[in-house]
Amino acid sequence: MITFRLNTHSGVPPYLQIVQQVRHALQVGVLRPGDKLPTVREVVAHVPINPNTVFKAYRELEREGLVQPRAGVGTFVLDRPAGPPPAAQAALAADLATWVQRAQKMGMHDDAIEALLQAVVQSKEEI
Question: Please, which of 7, 22, 100, 108 could form a disulfide with 112 given CB 3.0 to 4.6 Å?
Answer without folding.
Answer: 108
